[in-house]
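Q: What does the assembled structure look like for these inputs?
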Amino acid sequence: MIGRARATALEDERQAAFTRLVDRDLDRAYRLAGVILGNGADAEDATHDAVVHAWRSFAGLRDHNRFDAWFQRILVNTCRDRLRKHKRTPVTELNVASGASVTGGYGSVDDRLALDRAFTRLSPEQAITVVLRFHADLKVEDIAERMGVPTGTVKSRLHAGLASLELALAGVEVIDR
Amino acid sequence: MNAEQERVLRAWLDARDPGEPTPTLRAALQQVPANVSVPWPASIENAMRRALGPWAPVRLVALVILGLALTVALVGASLLLRSRVPFPPQGLIAYTVPTGISDVRLIAADGSGVRAVTDTADALETSPRWSPDGSTLLFVRFGGPAVAGGEQPICGMVDGSIVLYDLATRTQRDLATGLRVVYDAEWTPSGTQVGFLQDASDCKTLERGVIDLQTGRVTISDLGVTAGVYTMPGGGRTIARALIWTGSSFALQPLPDGNTADVPSSDGRRTAVAPLARDLGSRLEIVDRVTGDRVDLGPGSWPAWSPDNAAVAFVQPTNEGEEVGLRFHDRLAVADLVTERVRIIGEVLVTSVGGIENATPPLFWTRDGQAIYFLDDKGGHVVDVASGSSFDLPVAMNGCLDLQWQPTPKAGVQ
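A:
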């Protein structure tokens, strides 16, 4: 039988380990959520939900060296759920007064708006796959692990997602299916 | 995708990066382990170690075997029960999508197809209602500059109309135009008339309208009612959904006060009186409108009468919260008004954050009384009343409103 004092010490140790790991990964997680969801407020909510979920499942994670991939998978699932639930048109803030700065290295304003629209129309799974590949620079195998799907599924989602975005960049309006 | 397009895509994704998290978020997340309880496995693991002592391995194996046996028995019983019930029901569900200006959609209950009944950028469509034979959908349309600009319908500033949509031909026709803010519209059981409630010309009282579908004649009568009409923060008004067909005419049941909803049975004989919002302390009561007899069903909100008025479904609140109070695991309950017994047949996840704090989702019965369907914080669900077995509604309906199941399955939506 273990004593109450020992159990409390174990619990304190576990809490400290979790806080340390979350603190280390927080910056990357929040920014990834921001890119997926398109704004800081939703990213904060998603990161919070993911941390709560991770804490409740933390006892099941035996190898703490795998925390970053494990936590990212939880975060990605949380973002996917939010995208599914709150699928909506993002607010595009155009700084008209500053003129040329709105193009800022990522193509024309038209490109940006076209990407905004096209990205919103991707399925949550396609959108996340594109972000993990072209923003987080993950390999297909790593994306498959984060999303809990076979590599073939990742490839097909990537293909479909990029096809829609490519059409948008080529000036073709993609209609909702 | 060529190299230039990939460069543009990467730059666009980088531009969505919100930067570093705020110190407030960082501080809040550091408190999560101290504030969020862990039901399993850690807390139970520790408790089991304390309880089982040195014989833990042997007792653990015994518990696992017992658990497995119980699971097999429960799954077997569940499958047996499920095989007896023709479930889930088939057909289409009409609903409104609340994003932007509201539109009406149809979806096959199995999620196999979606049809946009309306897709207007400058009008708001709401309140879909099936005709009794399931062949025609009625809905309310609001137009006007204010609505097109995103305002909610306000008396004197909208052009209201009632529109019929033929499912087979996919055509629309105006049933009545030049209306004000229409709160509710209902078919008679025969499908020959449509009743509706709207603001009167003084924008204070209510009018009842009845449309004869054969002649197209619209009869308006001033109800002179102001009770139960509430002004919303945005300037619009709302009322309880209380237009009922008594067997000979449409009657209005106003709200008695600002805290309780008075939901009449379709035969007008009884009323379910319940708190408007989720409240552990309030009681749901069934009141006989003739004798005044009252039946107390305990804590509950948002009652929905079964089609035969023999039962009431409602949400029974619990204090079982989840994740720092983000959700409450409330219960889906059905009260048999003959035996006065309450059965729990499912769970309803009620959100407790945001602008709809403690809001309880409305419950709906299928026309045959076999199932109850609703949308909660985790999506849409259909629960078989007899067995309690359930299935999820299509994900496309998440966050939508005003669900209406087609009475008799007809043409698909592809």
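The two ends of chain B are 32 Å apart (CA to CA).
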